[in-house]
């Protein structure tokens, strides 16, 4: 069972629909016992970093997510959900994240338009099951104004280029993050979600 | 770098896709969900749905179209037409849309842009502008191109960005449905002034029009309706042509 965490942010219906389309058991929930019983936790997210952390806190879910991740359960963050996995964000202030992975979230500082909104190419920097079957140069759909500065480059599986190198897929052991929206990234996105499915077989 | 986006636009009336010229002479074209699926499978980067109905009864039909579309495609899509309140935003976003565009309502109550951006994020809020050149100035029109607001297009675009819009759709009233090419001048002016993506709309008739607006007009995306609906231009073929002419586009789909 895949548990998509419902903590009052963003549009999670499309993530739900995408997993459902892969014939997976999936539920949208904020119930800790359901999350504890799941085989994968999906942390979606659209919106502001602080609001998202506040909402997780309000729903009493921070410890629950951390405990499950520390036990080795697959935890998959999408977009803002990926950013929340890290230590800190500088989005309109300075806010602590879940701190499960090391790195900080910073704003784009270049001449390009912000947010990065649209389709960009991803390039693999290492082989990993999460990016199985994905070729260099395949496009995925990004919408974000802040990006990850990772502490460990080896946590980054795929990069994209938006004036600077931007981590697109990160993974450390059982924790996976995607800065873009796989559920909105056409066939490439579906392949990536398929790879998640393969991991929980 | 980001690929330039090609965006089919579906005007929906009473649950059907329709198309008119210069906002008039409406004709029935197709089933919206089937057409959306076709575009998604054939290279569209994003879709736009405009609800051109007025009555509340038909609005429910439209919401049903949005829901069924969300279940059938895996690319982003936005909704426009008749959005006036935060409640309207919530309704279409809940139905599965990724973005919401506002036009007349943004002119009448500019704080709606800010409220929506704070609640849903700027990436959700698209400022749609209908513009027309009078003498030397580009003016902003509302109510389907019937009322000149007196606002200047460039100033309104900048203000919209400051208020929190994450993207601009620029519709040129005189070019709409005429197939003589996009309005390059105003597209370029606005695209160079703002720091958010600009989608050019109105006037696509041949592949070269897309090339021109993406290159000379500096648009981040090009929107079109009838040339796609009537299969005068296939998106795949258009993208191959753009790619050969030095435009970065997504060709694996």
TrEMBL record, chain A:
Subcellular location(s) of the protein: Cytoplasm
GO cellular component: cytoplasm
Pathway entry: Amino-acid biosynthesis; L-histidine biosynthesis; L-histidine from 5-phospho-alpha-D-ribose 1-diphosphate: step 5/9
SUPFAM superfamilies according to UniProt: Class I glutamine amidotransferase-like
Location of the Glutamine amidotransferase domain: 4-189
EC number: 4.3.2.10, 3.5.1.2
Reactions this protein catalyses: L-glutamine + H2O = L-glutamate + NH4(+); 5-[(5-phospho-1-deoxy-D-ribulos-1-ylimino)methylamino]-1-(5-phospho-beta-D-ribosyl)imidazole-4-carboxamide + L-glutamine = D-erythro-1-(imidazol-4-yl)glycerol 3-phosphate + 5-amino-1-(5-phospho-beta-D-ribosyl)imidazole-4-carboxamide + L-glutamate + H(+)
Record GO biological process: L-histidine biosynthetic process
Catalytic residue positions: 79 (nucleophile), 181, 183
Keyword Transmembrane helix: no
Pfam family, one: GATase
Any GO molecular function: lyase activity
The entry's keywords: Amino-acid biosynthesis, Cytoplasm, Glutamine amidotransferase, Histidine biosynthesis, Hydrolase, Lyase, Transferase
Physiological role: IGPS catalyzes the conversion of PRFAR and glutamine to IGP, AICAR and glutamate. The HisH subunit catalyzes the hydrolysis of glutamine to glutamate and ammonia as part of the synthesis of IGP and AICAR. The resulting ammonia molecule is channeled to the active site of HisF.
Subunit and partners: Heterodimer of HisH and HisF.
Identification of the protein by name: Imidazole glycerol phosphate synthase subunit HisH
UniProtKB/TrEMBL annotation, chain B:
Catalytic reaction list: 5-[(5-phospho-1-deoxy-D-ribulos-1-ylimino)methylamino]-1-(5-phospho-beta-D-ribosyl)imidazole-4-carboxamide + L-glutamine = D-erythro-1-(imidazol-4-yl)glycerol 3-phosphate + 5-amino-1-(5-phospho-beta-D-ribosyl)imidazole-4-carboxamide + L-glutamate + H(+)
Subcellular location as annotated: Cytoplasm
Any one Gene Ontology BP term: L-histidine biosynthetic process
Domain of life according to the entry: Bacteria
Keyword Lyase: yes
GO molecular function, one term: imidazoleglycerol-phosphate synthase activity
Biological or metabolic pathway of the protein: Amino-acid biosynthesis; L-histidine biosynthesis; L-histidine from 5-phospho-alpha-D-ribose 1-diphosphate: step 5/9
InterPro entries with a match to the protein in the record: Aldolase_TIM (IPR013785), His_biosynth (IPR006062), HisF (IPR004651), IGPS_HisA/HisF (IPR050064), RibuloseP-bd_barrel (IPR011060)
Keyword Lyase among UniProt keywords: yes
Residues of the active site: 11, 130
Protein task: IGPS catalyzes the conversion of PRFAR and glutamine to IGP, AICAR and glutamate. The HisF subunit catalyzes the cyclization activity that produces IGP and AICAR from PRFAR using the ammonia provided by the HisH subunit.
Family statement: Belongs to the HisA/HisF family.
Subunit comment: Heterodimer of HisH and HisF.
PANTHER family: IMIDAZOLE GLYCEROL PHOSPHATE SYNTHASE HISHF, IMIDAZOLE GLYCEROL PHOSPHATE SYNTHASE SUBUNIT HISF/H IGP SYNTHASE SUBUNIT HISF/H
Record's protein name: Imidazole glycerol phosphate synthase subunit HisF
